[in-house]
Amino acid sequence: MRHLWNNLLRPRTLRYKLMIASVVCILIPACITISVYNYLTRDAVKEQAVLSANESLKLVDGYVTNMLKYMLYIANYIQIDPDINMILKNNAEGNPYVGDDAEYREFTDTNKITGKIGNITIVGEKCYVTILLKNGKYYTNYQAHEYNPPDLFKEPWFGEMNRLNGVQSYWVGTTPTSFQTERLVHNDYQISVARTLRGTGLDIYGYVIVTIMENQLNPVLKSISPDQETLLLDASDHILSHRDSGKIGSYFPYVKVASEAGGKDIIEIGGENYLLTTRPLGVTDWKLVSFSPYKKAIFKVDSIFQKVFTFQLVSFIVFLLLLLYLLRAFTKPLVQLGRVAATVRRGNLEVRSRIRGNDEVGLLGISFDQMLDRIKDMIAEITLTQARKRKAELAMLQAQINPHFLFNVLNSIRMKVLGRGDRDSAEMISSLSKLLRMTISQEKDMISFHEEVEIIIHYVQLMDMRQKEKVTLEVDVSSDVFLQKVPRFFLQPVIENALLHGLSRRAGTIKLRAYASERQFVIVVADTGQGMEPHQLEALHRRMLTGAAGHAVEGETGQHLSSIGLPNVCERMRMTFGDAFEMKVDSEIGQGTTVTMYVPMEAEGRSDV
């Protein structure tokens, strides 16, 4: 077993790794999904079963509630109808009918009450309405042979009527049928609601009792699934209505069991789980109860989930096999390319992959073959080039001029000119030789500040020899900054601007001053030239701030002031020393221009300038 695992986990081809990775990435999530699905399915099935039972009870509730509201509507109508109340109060007070038409008026009043009762009950469900006065007089919508209303005084529940207030109702619940006709057709139980009739002093003078047959509720209870038992219970959990009339009046204990179990929907009875849901009625304290075996309640829903699970499992296996097949087909060109690469590694450059296509693998095959063609051509070209290169190097070594030879020749010319008495030309050649030596011989970009000053001195001397009028260079450099490293030739553009644009190649003075100040040293270059206009100075400051260059500003004299030198020096110094470097230019017309640079002492210049 261990050997098998080692073989599976051992690194192999890319195709093998892709297949293993695909199987793992699909199999593990699929197993987790199936496990979570099975776990969540149980809750979903339970929720669906409870929801289905609640929906069924909701339908039953609608029918039962409407029936009970209809009974209350009849009682309310009799209780608030002014014509009925006036007749009933007169009869309850014992006021006799007098006069020649006494019998007719009594007959008319009786017909008026019974007619109104008949009118409100004729369009709805069949119900029995009884109006019973305390003196024993009564009015009904049924015949006298059906039931004797004064017998209601003998009912055990009738005493509860005296405790009612206002429009309160007393729901009698299920009792044996009192009506002769209903007993003959085996309607064994009835349900009644009772109201009191009160006078102006709130004294009870009569009662209204509305009765329906229990079997009028039975059809909707029987319409639910045969596996689902639906009951109507009173406040004490006694059965008021049931599809099996033999259970009416008996106690239903399982609502209390569910309540004691924390209101659970599923309870265990005799080792079997049952689904029990309740729904209270809005018009009374009765409630509807749905009671069914849990297995039967979830059978349809569970069957659907099982079919979905089976379909998912089969789909997973089919698509996994399809994926493995596609991976094998997609990686076949890569396997072939790998074989060709192994052949090339052994030194055979004549082999080609012959892989073609518009996808990435096809393009890779084309590129690989082209690369082999190019390598073959390059090997031949390099062989030829190397032979030519060796000949060129030999010729170059033969023609190479040593820089020291150039300096020696310049020094010989200077000595010859000096021997003839032309000291100015000799000094000019000497300065040029020193300037060239500093330029050519130095390989580093950073030099000491005193070396930069020497370059500037020789540069000014050469410029003086070119111009008709000489410029005086005054140097005042503190010894504290002599060894400070600075970029080579960073002062030359500043001095050149002072010579060409500040002094306009005329006589004048350029002062170079440098001194240490706290953690930086300050370099000041001032000339006694013509200065700049305010708008020219502002434009120069703007270009120095943004690093822009490449434009010229025309002054009043018509000469172009270079805007390249100073911004480039500023940008170069900032690249070397960072934002700690500062450069300021001050200028006034007729007063000259002053350039001040603040260079940090502790900075170690960067060699990439």
Automatic annotation (TrEMBL):
Membrane topology: Multi-pass membrane protein
Record localization: Cell membrane
GO MF, one annotated term: phosphorelay sensor kinase activity
Residues annotated as transmembrane: 20-40, 308-327
Main location: membrane
Gene3D superfamilies assigned: 6.10.340.10, Histidine kinase-like ATPase, C-terminal domain (3.30.565.10), PAS domain (3.30.450.20)
UniProt xrefs under SUPFAM superfamilies: ATPase domain of HSP90 chaperone/DNA topoisomerase II/histidine kinase, HAMP domain-like
GO cellular component: plasma membrane
Coiled coil (UniProt feature): none
CDD domains named in the record: HAMP (cd06225)
Domain HAMP: 328-380
Alphabetized SMART domains for the sequence: HAMP, HATPase_c
Keyword entries, A-Z: ATP-binding, Cell membrane, Kinase, Membrane, Nucleotide-binding, Phosphoprotein, Transferase, Transmembrane, Transmembrane helix, Two-component regulatory system
Pfam families reported in the protein's UniProt record: dCache_1 (PF02743), HAMP (PF00672), HATPase_c (PF02518), His_kinase (PF06580)
InterPro entries: Bact_2-comp_sensor_kinase, dCache_1, HAMP_dom, HATPase_C_sf, HATPase_dom, Sig_transdc_His_kin_internal
Organism domain of life: Bacteria
Protein name: Sensor histidine kinase
Protein species of origin: Paenibacillus thalictri
